[in-house]
C-alpha cells in the first residue's frame, strides 16, 4: 500500500465520521503498444491454423484408398503439401572409387639390373615400404583363413588378368564383371563399341610379384576393403581394328614385352567376395601414348579427288587449241597475195 493510502487509513481510524476512500491498485500491461491506430493489423500478424492430427483425423487413414484426384483435393482444402511415399533403397558397396596410397613404380623398372647401383637402390626403397604392406596382409588373414601371397594369390591374380582380357576381346560384358570391379569396368569398355580387339597372352618374362598391399574401411570401421598391387612382366600381342577392318594399333604377329602394375581389390568382410582387377598404375615418368587414328565414313557424291583428273585432262588439251590458233595467221598472207 502506498504512503497516501496509509495516511488516509489513519485519518479514518482517528475520525470515524469522516468518509473513507477505498484505493484499488491497478497494474497496466507493459507490452501494450503506445499507438492503437494499427491494432487490428498487428493482430492479423498472428493467425490460428488448424493443424492436422494424423492420429485422430479419420480422413488421413483413408488416403491409401483414395484416387489421385481425391488426394489432391483433400490436401488442397487443408492448404498442405501432399506427403511423399517413404521408399527405402538398399545400398551395397562392392568396390571403392579409387586407389588408396597408390604405389609409385621406380623409374627404369624392368630395364635396370638388380646387381647395378640403381637396382640396389630400388630394392632398398621396396624394403622400407614393406612394413605397411605386411600389416595389411595380416589384416586380410584375419578375415580369410589360409591366405598366402605365394603361390595362391599370385596364380589367382594372373588367371584373373588373362580371363578379363579374353572377356574384353569377346565383348562379353557380363563375364567381364566377374573379373573387374565396377570402377575398372568403365575404363576397359570405353571406346570399344565399334572396334575389334585381338589380344593374346604368350608367356611371363618374370614371375608375378606383389609389391604393395593396403587396407582401409569405408563408412563404418567394420566395412573393410583390401587392395594388392601386382607387378606383371609379360609378353603379349595386341591388335585393334576399327569398324572398317583397318588396323589402328599394334599387331597380331609382333609380340611386345609389357610391364604393368595392376591393382586387385576385394571386399574382405564379404564371405562371397573375390579378388578382381580394380585399376592400373601408370607412373608419371612414363611417356604419353600416341592417340589412335580416327576413321569415318566417306560421304557419297563427287569429291575433290574425283574431280581433279577431269581438270587435268582439260589442261592437257589446251596446247592443241593453241597450235591451231598459231597456224591461222600463216595462211592469211598466202590468200591475200
Automatic annotation (TrEMBL):
Record keyword Transcription regulation present: no
Gene3D superfamilies the record matches: 3.10.450.240
Taxon lineage: Eukaryota, Metazoa, Ecdysozoa, Arthropoda, Hexapoda
Family listed: Belongs to the mitochondrion-specific ribosomal protein mL45 family.
Protein's UniProt name: Large ribosomal subunit protein mL45
Pfam families: Tim44
Record keywords: Mitochondrion, Ribonucleoprotein, Ribosomal protein, Transit peptide
Domain Tim44-like positions: 133-282
Domain of life where this protein originates: Eukaryota
Compartment(s) of residence: Mitochondrion
GO CC annotations on file: mitochondrion; ribonucleoprotein complex; ribosome
Ranges of biased composition (kind: Polar residues): 297-307, 314-337
Location of the region described as Disordered in the Swiss-Prot/TrEMBL record: 291-337
PANTHER family hit by this protein: 39S RIBOSOMAL PROTEIN L45, MITOCHONDRIAL, LARGE RIBOSOMAL SUBUNIT PROTEIN ML45
